[in-house]
Protein 1
Amino acid sequence: MTWTLLLEQFLNGFQLGVVLFLMAAGLTLVFGIMDMVNLAHGSLYMIGALLCATFTDWTGSFILGVLLALPAVLAVGIAVEVVALRTLYRRDHLDQVLATFGLILFFNELCRIIWGPEGMAIPLPGWLDGSIEILPGMPYPTYRLLVIAVGLAVAAALYWLVVRTRTGMLIRAGASNRTMVGALGVNIGLLFTLIFGLGAALAGLAGMMAAPIVQANIGMGESILIPAFVVIVVGGIGSIRGAFIAALLVGLIDTMGRSFLDLLLGTVMSVTAAETAAPALSAMAIYILMAVVLFFRPQGLFPPQGRR
Amino acid sequence: MGLNRRTIVTVLVLLGLALLPLLLGGAPFYIGVVARAMILAIAAISLNLILGYGNMFSFGHAVYIGIGAYAVGICAYYDIFDGFIQWPIGLAVSAAVALVFGAIALRTKGVYFIMITMALAQMMYFLGLSLDEYGADDGLVIYTRSEFAGLIDLEDHITLYYVCFGFLLLIVLGMARLVNSRFGLVIRATRFNEARMRALGFPVDRYKLTAFVIAGTVCGLAGLLLGNFTNFVNPDMMHWTRSGELIFMVVLGGMGSVFGPVFGAIAFLLLEEFLSDWTEHWQIVFGPFLILVVLFARGGIDGLLGRRNPSDD
């Protein structure tokens, strides 16, 4: 094991963490303010990726594809909120979970009809396809660096939105007491719709960022949804800051575990035993992390302040 | 139990299940569909104990189906075909896993509970995926069904059907007794006012954990049956979407009624069967149907049979 390999995997973990954060940010905002569990968040991730693939195919440019797909996902998100989810806010969590599970079935099948079972790959433009030498003798894919940069930029913008703007103030106020915010004359229904659209756009963006690496396909939403849940539970539901830290933590633990756990275990047990145990343990690592965090801090690491 | 509509329908359904192989003598396919529905009904009944009576929204219940099925599969992999060994192992492992998962999950409430049960189940799913020895995502083919010292021959599909039916009857009757016992009343009361139950001095957490373990163990039994029925086990049985389907069976049938999940499981499988016969894209109908049931038919099928007398269950 060399230091460059360690650094490379660290960056890969960081990149996964950034994508997870984009997913988790929407989930945690929607939950924090509307007290609503949305399983179909993964579907928006998938739809974002597939729309981006189609638009990239039409326009011949990945950047244009993203720019066209973003408002499209936003529109899908708002449509879903208005048509299906609005009636669910007053229901209990079980109803929300089940109804959004129905949405997943619907969207998966719809996308299978439109895009076919294989999905679509997104080819990268030449200037993104190469790699950059970030350290002497250590090239790293340009695209992954771009994902990290975009993710960090979005995180910063989101932080600014939530902490520094009037909309953000309403979001935070809604998270701690939405009845009161409504009573003070804020159009809470409109605020909900906007938040949901924002979350949908973030999930779609995450899907677009991930698609050139993993290919846009049916069911990609489900594979990211549960890790995103792990992130918001570990970070404390409703907290953007918690989601950011937990997303990086989960991304790093998952990636580093898969790369280095066998070597690490090899120092305390026989190499063959380590090679059998490591894949199983690294696949379970983030869930073990979640169980441990919940056992000691049932509210997550950074619960938002002032929740009822 | 008076002779009301619910009793009549329940008896008719049970009678129908008992006579089905005679009526459908030459149609093993539909016997298979119904046997599968009865197995999933057992799983749904067990889920209903924590979901409907205990108000614990577990989204990882399919794990115990997987554990039961893997108990058959892994034992058979090592040439242990004796059901008297396989089945206690399956039930014991289900109970042990439910004890650990329950102890962790019950530290949390509400939406955290949903998510942690889901995540713990996904953990087991990934564990199954990473076990190359036991076929990883291809799973294990179970060439020989459980053997019971020549007493019962599960290889005969009619016998297997009646074994499933027998267990279903047993679980229905057992669950009816359980929810009306002192234990069941404590669990149900906790659902309405947990703080008061604590104030009355009941160790609520211990009751809930016990219910969680009972539910897991009974679901493990369903897994043992399913492994024998399908001759196959793979990690997909534990995927969270399977857990979602189990929840839907409970809600479709009617939460918090002993027999509701049986209606739910049968209706679910028949619907799946007919819709997938009709179009390959059946889920595009099934998804919105699920949403409509949640929005407009919370009582489920059981709710169609009129108001329930609480002591009738």
Protein 2
Amino acid sequence: MLKQTTAVTLLNLRSIPQRWGMSLATVLSIALVVGVLLGFMAMASGFRATVDGAGSDDVAIMLRGGAMAEMNSNISRDEVRLLEVAPGIAASPGGEPLISSELYVVADGIRRASQTPANLALRGLGLHGPDMRPQFDLVEGRMFQPGSAELVVGESVPREFEGFALGDSVRLGNNNWTIVGVFSTGGSVFDSEIWTDLGVVQNLYQRGSSVQTVRARLTSPDAIEVLREYVENEPRLNLEVLSERAYFARSAGGTTNLIMFLGWPLAIAMAIGALAGAWNAMYASVDARTRELATLRAIGFGGFPAFIAAMVEAIVLAFFGGLVGAVATWILFDGVSASTLGSGFTQIVFAFAVTPEAVVQGVILAMIVGFLGGFIPALRAARIPLLAVHND
Amino acid sequence: MNDATLIRKNLFRKRLRAVLLTISILIAFLIYGMLGAMQNAFSMGTEGAAQDRLVTVNRINFTVALPYAYWGRIQQVEGVRTVAPASWFGGYYQEPQNFVQSFAVDPESYIEAYPELVFQDDQRTAFIEGRTCAAVGQALATQYGWSVGERIPLMSNIWQQQDGSQAWELDICAIFDDADGTYPTNYLMLHYEYFNESLAFGRDSFHWIAITTEDPGQNDRISREIDELFANSPAETSTTTEAAFNAAFMEQFGNIGLILSWVIGAAFATILMIVGTTMVMAVNERTREIAVLKTLGFTAPRIFRMVLWEALLLSFIGGLIGLGLAALAAQGASAALAGFLPSFGLSWTNALTAIAFMVALGLITGMLPAWNAMRVRISEALGKI
């Protein structure tokens, strides 16, 4: 039985080139299905990696109650003072609390790809700002001088927008700025931002002494409860305390879901379309070999080997289709830089990431299509009557 | 028995195959329709923009405010008909997740600047006169089940009143619709005065100013003059046409349009290959029959047409069902998404383009098999026996 099955299967696979038109169409249509699915998944996982990478568990972010996003938040100088003495906050070697008051305004950058203006976040932050981003690293140049119109830019910014290279002078709003450094935060959302001194932003954009958010490094991830209790019991504070990870998870959910909810239904709809293709190709394949299969039956081969052979053919074709689609997506899309409007009304730059898990999922989808598409034609192959040898 | 019967019989001779092909074509057009509807929703603002309307925002960015005094100064520019300032309110209803697109406006100038908004006369007067009145768009009113006469607290996630509260009590005095269905009605307007006087910070400023001009031909001159008026001031302005402003905003979401086109393209390429190869196969199977038809006196062009019609018929059956399903699905999605996206539906342009695609699909997939069929030689085909 096993011998028979192997023999018929090999015979079947070797004869694929004789039916190349139909087989190629099946392979390509399955490849397109997998390509579309993986494209969407690459977009979603790239976006998620960027936003998730930004949040750490031992950094607390405080916003005005009900603000939902940094942009809408507003915290006064008095409130910041109360937070500086809050419990649960780690201290610097010099003994000051590791706190960063931050304020960002939206500035226009010109996007390279489309030459259209897009919103960039110009964030003013204090001395301890970089301490809140564990992976912060100055890649080129130096840090800005407090009080001067100097900028450091995240490494995604020069990639996606024009005029932000080290040493460039750039006009944002009514002011001229010099770019003195490029930093990396390990591919997180902060890499799409421009940083400068908090006081400079407050002055040039007439924000007085108010800030939007206060970030604090916690002594441990659990210390957030202590901090939260302090804030709730202090009547002069109307603030929401979140871990940074929770904050980013909340703001990323919508976009990632949108991408995923669009990607999977599309891939499934297209897979049903491709199923019809696979089905037809397999029917054609069985039809083309009716006499051959009947002859095999006549000389003593069973129906089961014919069934297995047809199934293997369908799955092999689908597997190749899936592989072609996955490799093509990987070559075309992996690492492609894109940007979209994030929750803070500013651009988030992210790179498409074709992950190994996504590739596996794509190939599995392809093989499911192959299996379903091959099943009924394979049943038919197994049931070809002996007399079919006389057909035609 | 005429040609039409023959075409129909040929198409459905293998019922399963015909059904499968119909399904794959159906799916291609379903995807086309759904994505088209989505693209419409994203480009709605651009299409609804009026020719004679300009938008002035802060040059830094539209999120930065402009001083109150600009209202009067822009009014002085020659050729300006109406000036309607507005502030972004950032509203939500009950829960922060229940986003309500809302802005504070000066009712009289706003209604004048947006003549496409349709009010009942008494409701319009009520909205203009009542200080705590709000006018709600039809789509938004449907979403939250609001009706005229109701009193709602609208929370703001940006603004605070002097007493620290973030809720504004509003009376719904009017529900407006739009005249021709091209302008979204998923937003709410409240009185600028009522909003402004209770603010804890950021008073006496606007986020954008909509300007209507007497003559669209003068738009360029007028925008230049407005921007020159405020050059070198702390709040410089940028004035563009409403269409350009909306397009630039949508552009920020990234290449949604491009991605959608890619997906539609991939779906069509897949279907084209499947239908094409199957048609070739189906016609090859019939070589002998075609030879018989020829023997009976069917001319080669007639056979060519018959095979081509077969492909077109298949394309239309699948395509029209798919488009119909997409229209139904879009209607369903539209009801669910009313607050976020303005009307989500298929336009006539979409439908006509889809029909053009059906013709193209039928022609492309039918041409090769039809050509093969036309060239079948009686002697060869029948000699195969």
